[in-house]
Amino acid sequence: RGFEVYGIGKIDDIFANRGLTGSNHTTDNAATLQAILERTAVDFRGLVFANCIDFDMLYGHRNDYRGFAQALERVDAELLKIRQALTPRDLMIITADHGVDPTTPSTDHSREHVPLLAYCSGVPGVNLGTRNSFSDIAATIMELFGVGPWPVGESFANVFQHHKG
User: Fold this and answer.
1) The whole model's pTM is what?
2) Average pLDDT, the chain
3) How many domains does the chain have?
4) What is the mean pLDDT of residues 143-153?
5) Cα–Cα nearest to 7, from 18, 20, 16
6) 100 is in which domain, residue-wise?
7) Which CATH number belongs to the domain containing residue 14 in this structure?
8) How far is residue 98's CA from residue 47's CA, in Å, rounded to a whole number?
9) Does the pLDDT value for residue 103 go beyond 90?
10) Which of 19, 68, 110, 140 lies deepest, with the highest CB count within 10 Å?
11) Would you list the DSSP string of 77-142?
């Protein structure tokens, strides 16, 4: 449909390069965030899908809560740069595929709910509530790109209606 799907981090591995029009395989959070920032300078129409692997691989599964906290602080500082590089037509969604609480005795996935933060320049903050499914993100993206409706999930695109494609 004319949209690019660009993977950063281990996205190319996760999806076996299927469905991607390009990728930058990075191996840590710093390189991933730098690649995201560099990608904001490219004029394209589509989706940048990135994975910050350190939270899972280095800190969560190893119960390193201090390292996890420090990594959050580093990512938070870089997100400001990324946010400032976004155009009014860009939407940034931050979430996780699962939780790995580094403060529990277990090293397995631990949380049922993951964060969902969405940023679009000029759109006031609202509570998106506890979503029922990751499919809500897919439904939102499909609606904003004008290629929906997605068969499952509940779009929250109404929050970003000025943002289309």
Assistant:
1) 0.86
2) 90
3) 1
4) 88
5) 20
6) 4-123
7) 3.40.720.10
8) 21
9) no
10) 140
11) HHHHHHHHH--TT--EEEE-SS---TTSS--S---S---EEEE-TTPPP------S-THHHHHHHH
